[in-house]
Specification:
The complex is a heterodimer. In chain A, helix 1 (about 10-15) packs antiparallel against helix 2 (about 40-55). The termini of chain A are far apart. Chain A has helices at about 10-15, 40-55, 70-85. Chain A contains 3 helices and no strands. By secondary structure, chain A is mainly α. Chain B is an alpha+beta fold. In chain B, about 55% of the residues lie in helices and about 10% in strands. Chain B contains 10 helices and 8 strands. A 4-stranded mixed β-sheet of chain B has the order 1-4-5-8, with helices on one face. In chain B, helix 1 (about 5-30) packs antiparallel against helix 2 and helix 1 (about 5-30) packs parallel to helix 3 (about 60-75). Chain B is globular and about 75 Å long. The chains are: A mainly alpha, B alpha+beta. Chains A and B meet through helix 2 of A and helix 10 of B.
């Protein structure tokens, strides 16, 4: 999976919460978000902005460390919620 | 640990406590480590409480750790903290050192020959555990350590150090490795002195550390400190610190009650008055809450570890942070209340019948030692991630 698999909006939101990701360095599917500076407070910010930007609400079950481990994991949850909302 | 061995260990801890009590005022006056107490801790085997029996240790667990930390703090809070933080480092080695390093270090710890200090604060990061500015540099001789350490508890006495370093010169600040270094592998320059309000017997010094260690001395893998911190260093630290503070406050209350029940009680304190009873009740309630929560969270950590489950889960992190913050606040509050109850001559004066003044100064450090502010920020963020509110 490459960064092309998610929209630019998602990439932009995620990057804003990663203080250790240099501008111009690509965000890959398996980039470790905690390693790029996503601490607990930043996670809350990312959660709120992703929920607003994609009109979803993460359930308790999705609020796990694994969801915020990589961009791919988070995007997978967002896509699942969006698919559910459309049916 | 079997019941008979457990009794022996508790008796050994009680002997240490007797020595600590004898020296508590002097080491507080002179701001130095209680060397007779440290010598007895080494001789008794208690430095190896958490070392497994196959490595010559006592094979104790976290329940023993929090019980003995309270007992030692009944003698001297500073020395109890030195011991508790040593045990914290031992837990890290037991769980994360490679087998060869473990085989080399654990028997020395069990024999009381290796007191471990930790170097986890940096000039720019303060107590922020998960970042470190100074990088490990790979050289032909091994990994070069070159680091300022603003506060190292027992730094002048330790035979070994666990040191956080940025994993390489190119690594980001939060990619941190933990390395073990023997004192004789390092050049250590002491900086500044330790002249503080309380916890004076920890003799925590600034150190400039340089040296070269082998790659096999990296504990928890390259850049693996985050996991070490989440699974061992932070949880065991919070349990052990809370136990020390609780032990100090319990000791203070025990002595205060002893005085109030004796003929020497100040005439100004009428134990039949409702005001005195209400004040005593508030003090007792503070300690009841910390004691119960400490036991509860200790059991949670033991249960999760036994099941092989990570301690990094949201609710568990909240519980561990809450324990540290609550223990720091309530034990200090209880001693503050004891000072109020005991009054100027017993509560506030140095060398009074109950050392409330020393406990007050010591416990004031609790909210600063790995600052409550940072833990509260993290706990608030984690609270938003736990809508089902999983309480301890």
């Amino acid at each position: 999976m490459t960064s092309a698999d998610w929209p630019d909006d998602f990439e932009k939101v995620v990057r804003q919460h990663l203080p250790l990701l240099a501008e111009g360095t690509p965000l890959t599917a398996e980039s470790s978000l905690p390693a790029l500076g996503l601490d607990s407070l930043a996670t809350v910010g990312l959660l709120v902005e992703v929920e607003e930007a994609f009109a979803v609400q993460l359930s308790d079950e999705d609020l796990r460390v694994e969801t915020f481990a990589t961009p791919a994991a988070l995007w997978a949850v967002v896509m699942r919620l969006r698919a559910g909302a459309g049916t | 640990m079997e019941a008979s061995q457990r009794n022996e260990v508790l008796e050994a801890a009680a002997r240490v406590r007797t020595i600590l009590r004898q020296h508590a005022d002097t080491i507080d006056d002179e701001a130095r480590v209680c060397e007779p107490g440290m010598a007895e801790l080494r001789r008794s085997g208690l430095m190896g409480l958490l070392v497994p029996q196959e490595h010559g240790g006592l094979g104790g667990g976290l329940t023993d750790l929090v019980e003995i930390a309270q007992l030692l703090a009944d003698g001297c809070t500073s020395t109890a903290m030195i011991w508790a933080m040593h045990c914290q480092q031992v837990d890290t080695l037991v769980h994360f050192a490679a087998p060869a390093l473990r085989d080399r270090l654990l028997p020395r710890i069990a024999r009381g020959e290796l007191y471990l200090a930790s170097v986890t604060t940096g000039p720019s990061t303060g107590g922020h555990l998960l970042s470190s500015a100074s990088p490990l540099t790979d050289t032909a001789q091994g990994l070069q350590v070159d680091r300022e350490a603003p506060i190292v508890t027992g730094g002048a006495y330790a035979e070994g150090f666990l040191i956080t370093m940025r994993s390489s010169p190119d690594a980001p600040e939060n990619e941190v490795s933990l390395v073990y270094a023997d004192r004789d592998q390092l050049d250590i320059v002491e900086r500044g002195d330790w002249d503080t309000l309380g916890m004076r017997g920890t003799h925590s010094l600034g150190l400039k550390i340089t040296g070269v260690v082998s790659r096999s001395q990296v504990v928890g893998g390259d850049g693996g400190f985050r996991t070490v911190a989440l699974e061992s260093m932070a949880p065991v630290g919070h349990l052990a610190w809370a136990a020390c503070w609780l032990g100090a406050a319990r000791s203070a209350l025990g002595e205060l009650v002893g005085l109030l029940r004796s003929a020497q009680r100040p005439r100004s304190i009428d134990v039949r008055s409702e005001l005195v009873a209400e004040r005593l009740a508030r003090i007792r309630i503070d300690l009841e809450l910390v004691g119960a929560y400490l036991n509860r969270v200790t059991d949670e950590v033991i249960r999760l570890r036994a099941a092989g489950t990570s301690l990094a889960g949201t609710a568990t992190q909240i519980h561990l942070n809450t324990l540290k913050v609550t223990a720091a606040e309530l034990t200090f509050q209880s001693v503050d209340r004891m000072v109020q109850l005991a009054g100027l001559s017993i509560g506030y004066r140095r060398r009074s019948a109950v050392p409330l003044e020393r406990h007050f100064r010591d416990l004031r450090s609790a909210a600063l030692n790995y600052a409550n502010d940072r833990l509260l920020t993290a706990t608030g963020a984690l609270t938003l991630m736990d809508r089902s509110v999983n309480l301890a």
